[in-house]
Amino acid sequence: MKSLISTVALAALLATGAAVQAQTLRWASQGDPQTMDPHSQNESMTNMMNGQVYEKLVTRDRQLNIVPSLATSWEQTGSLTWRFKLRPGVKFHDGSAFSADDVVYSINRGKEPTSQVNVYANAVGTPVALDPMTVEFRLAKVNPIFLQHMDALWILSKSWSEKHKVTKPLDFKNKEESYASFNANGTGPYMLVSRAPGIKTVYKRNPNWWGKFEGNVQEIVYTQISNDATRLAALVSGEIDFVLDPAPRDIARLRNTAGVKIVDGPENRIVFIGMDQFRDKLAYGNVPGDKNPFKDVRVRKALYHAVDIETMKTKLMNGQSFPTGGITPSPLGSYNDPQVETRLPFDLAKARALMAEAGFADGFEVTLDCPNNRYINDEEICIALASMWAQLKVKVKVNAMPRATYFPKLEKHDTSMYMLGWGGAVTDAETTITPVLRNPGPGGQGLYNYGRVVNDKFDQMAAASSVEPDAKKREELVKAALREYTGQAHLIPLHRQVIPWAARTNVSAVHRADNWLEVAWVTVK
Known about the structure:
- The chain has 18 helices and 22 strands.
- By secondary structure, the protein is an alpha+beta fold.
- A 7-stranded mixed sheet has the order 8-9-10-1-11-20-12. Strands 4-5-7-6 form a 4-stranded antiparallel sheet, with helices on one face.
- Residues 1-21 have low confidence and may be disordered.
């Protein structure tokens, strides 16, 4: 009865637009963007939604190549300087003119401690306005992937930010709200009309956008639908046009459903389990002797050996995953190094022997924090892992929660064991190594190292790779660093996601490997 009521309520919500025009894209996903402040949260869904409104100096084409956006051209004028020519005539949604002052302001805003893109903003150096349409970036050290970092930095209006007192990114983890939580003013193809978190977010086409629309969408209506079955029913019935994250178990059925099609494609995303390797005693667990078992590499490897990844792939992911030992979103990040990409084998005997050797033959108890609306089958994966680790007498309590609660918890390091997925458009290892793997440090270094892992040997090689201009030398540094990290099993890698989209047959969309829906390219017939 409850599911019937929720379905009726959903239908009523989706119907509130009354006569929906053919050029309205109605779409859904299991989660919701965290905030409309583009610097506050660096989370894929949030970035994609904000990316309809805000733009960067550079952007990505369909093949993820870097191409001009708010900058028309750029050149490296020295080993430590880059110069960008800005696009003339661009207006923000409030009608104000875009200039170099907005770029300088936005990059510096991105460096603030409450920004989750501060590691990237710091990596591009100091922005200086040479004239209203020229910005120079002056670096303190060589950055071999400078342009990749530029693709993470959204441009805001300086005057709008000052007017609405949002000159610093909001502190999401401490539940701060600001004008930028629910309002936006970018230069992009769509303008934010209304924002009701967890319910509905509406955009309209920007008639003054400088770019060229390849699609015909005039209005975007996004509805969060957390339940897989309800989301699928809404698509099949025609109440919505597009689903970003159909459940793997439904893909085969959707391929044979009238009026619906699957848009296939892999995703640059690694999903792994992290462990607190900082505290001497686990915050959430019951361990003999009040120890932290995750500080022992034998325990970490035992848990790794106990993961039956092939069963997870076939039974839970319905074949929609690529198991790996790698810890970068793409195997290109490790240069396809077999020493990094090869998993530790599923071997319960080996796992039990390691647990006994470490003094935990009788196991221990621990809480595994997990999102339930972020990654494909996220909560189900955690439940499956709990069952697998029970074979080692490790009693795992799965603590699943929505992403809006989950990520602030991790940001406070309020966890003993957790799931994380890391991905995006960049295939280079740098954007994983520095923010996710390195020792916690200043300027966003180790910002997403929620287990607070410290490995000085790895960190030294990682730091050197970040500033090595010679491509071959840098490759060897990256591979050596990743071999050290995976060899210590600081994380337990699971798989790289495969994430097909589902759409009505009258919808044409471009599937990118960063799981990014570019609405300006979408056609609704």
